[in-house]
Structure of Aminopeptidase N:
Amino acid sequence: MREGQTAVIHRADYQAPAYWIDTVELCFDLDPAKTRVLNRMRIRRNPDVPPQPLKLDGDELNLARVLVNGQGTSFKMEGGRLVLENLPEGSEPFELEIFTTCCPAKNSKLMGLYVSNDSFFTQCEAEGFRRITYFLDRPDVMASYTVLLRADKRKYPVLLSNGNLVDHGDLEDGRHFAKWVDPFRKPCYLFALVAGQLVAREQKIVARNGKEHLLQVFVRPGDLDKTEHAMNSLMASVAWDEARFGLPLDLERFMIVATSDFNMGAMENKGLNIFNTKYVLANQATATDTDFGNIESVVGHEYFHNWTGNRVTCRDWFQLSLKEGLTVFRDQEFSQDLAGEASARAVKRIEDVRVLRTAQFPEDAGPMAHPVRPDQYLEINNFYTVTVYEKGAEVVRMMQTLVGREGFERGMTLYFQRHDGHAVTCDDFAQAIADANTQSPLYEKLGQFKRWYSQAGTPRVRAVPQWEAGTGTWRLQLSQSNPPTPGQADKQPQVIPIAWGLIGQDGRELASGMHVLTEAHDTLVVENLASEPVPSLLRGFSAPVILDFDYSDGQLLALLEHDTDPFNRWEAAQRLAVRSALAAIHHGGEVTLDAHFVEAMRHILRHPTLDSAFKELVLTLPAETYIAEQLDVVDPQHVHAVRESMRQQLATALQPDWEAAYEANKDSGAYSPDPVSSGRRALAGLALTHLCIAARLSSDTVWPGKAYQRFKDASNMTDRFNALSALVVGGSDLARPALQKFHAMFKDEALVLDKWFALQAGAPDRGGNVLPAVKQLMQHPDFNVRNPNRARSLIFSYCSANPGAFHRADAAGYVFWSDRVMELDAINPQVAARLARALDRWRKLAEPMRGAAREAIARVAAKPDLSNDVREVVTRALAE
């Protein structure tokens, strides 16, 4: 069932399929208006399931023929399903042949087989294969695939599918063919097909076992010069996975293909990864350091899926984090290992935690809260979430913490020994890691640890210290709780590893260790101390929890100055900044930054040995969304005003230091996206932004002029875009001509134009000017709402990433949101559902915004022909 489906799917109702599909032979005659698909399957009954009809999923297909063992047969349709009842009895396999047609050119959902820029692409996860042919579209049905592609050779000279190319040649009438065989069984969601005018960067590599492999990155002609970094990232990924986990590349070739029309970041189809161009194309003129880092991470992520997701896959979609959480953890480890030095590793860890706390923690506290392994869904596409991915990665990270790095690698080895070639569950993975480490806390507490998979919400750990000066004993009373979430009222204690250290009065570290909290209440005791220490708790963010500890300002300043743990050093600055913001918000007055905090920031900025990247993180104030999450009732415009005031005070109080930091870091030498050079550019960009903010407050024109000159003269996109952003955020009169010049320079670079749209939609709101600008930009010749990247760059940047501008007192932002959700839903329900999430937290809003937001959500919910994707989101948002 697809559109019109109203039944909620429950994990507890899982049943094995009544039939297994052993082999699949697909023949495609590709045509944009009418693609013909011949599907021959070898099927057998599952002897463990009572006899029943074969029900094959389908969606928007034209059925032409059904044959069983070469003979016509009766069938019926149940909704979108093809039902076959008169099938051969017994356990012997039978042949089923299905001939269908579809129209890829009209497939705006970008699920199944579709056309983008006159080329064919597929996206089958989670349930897109049913839009190609009738099939048992579920991940636990794994088959061997042979694929024959036929198409016009002039229009589609490149024909790609999964696995290894075994034959190709010319046909009559200017057509040609390619035959691909995938030697590994796979679920249908990993099927892929690409055909079009493409060129490739190629690289041959030799694995540790001596085998040669061909790596290919396919792009449109004209983009080949932007593929070197993606190829380098792919080579690094192959080498890292074999070195770290002993997992080799298992195909003759591995292919990446980039397309500009894609709902996701990328897709790990076996041997043929299809990517959003955003995560492939990069050179120094068009891509920022962040883009280079994201490409490395996403290329690694999709390649690592070759084993954690492809060779071992999910039994059902409730187990999605089995592959996604594990693989996010693996790509995080990959990026940290490539970063090399401890400081660069720490920067990567802080960046990952910042995403978790600004995106996943709010999800855990909202109407779409769900466990890492959900219990039910109406539309599976809605559960590709930060909870499944990022929180799932933190659950895997805790496993590694509890068993150690070498123990985790032993567990991975056991996992593949047990389950290679199978569709399994999150429990199977956790069991393998524990069984390989029988002396570990994970093994002892495995049943309790698995509550991380089943309980939604973010646990809170309350820590209260007690100091006995007479005995030199320091105690920490710990307690844990987890508030109710939709469908889950009572939560049980979870296994929470707490890395800790104690800092002395002189700044030296006195003690450190790991305490595993398993009970609702527990006590950590440290003896023989000469003086009361400052505790450094949850080092490295050792568990995805909220830590409640009543730090004094002095203690936080001490941690910021002396802590040996970089994460908690950064966290101390964040806590001090949030404390200042909340004080101003609660008391309704002007925010005034504490002089000690300002001096601490000055000390960080001037510090002679701290990395520039770390300085940039410490000196960046907490996001408005993170500040808002600390409040029971939120006025986003007030939060924005308070944070802007704090930024202005840092800009003016530290102006000489910003100037020195800019001058010291603006020249990073010949362009390289390495951590040190990227850190220097990041700090220079932050300094330039603050200098432009200070200039506006003092009506100075010098620094905006320097920023504009930097914008014009920059030798790379990072410096150019940092300068442009500084002018926009600083409110300079030079912002408008700079934006015009930027567009003229990059009007033919789609990904760069996405940055141009996003910067304007995310700009500070001065007098309500952002929404009119966004509406005007929607009429721009370069805006196309049907392209997901372009829609996200403008509409999402306003509705989801600019709360001060979106949450207007006149509710115009909410009206705009509801119009766009309904418009996008008719084109691409997946994109629409993600936009619908922008008002997840409407209940926290202050009036009149709260009532206006509810009215906007109800308006969307009242639309009769909504997709399941959007309906599930808005229905859950409105549920009491």
Remarks:
- The mean pLDDT is 97.
- Residues 460-548 form a domain with the Immunoglobulin-like fold (CATH 2.60.40.1840).
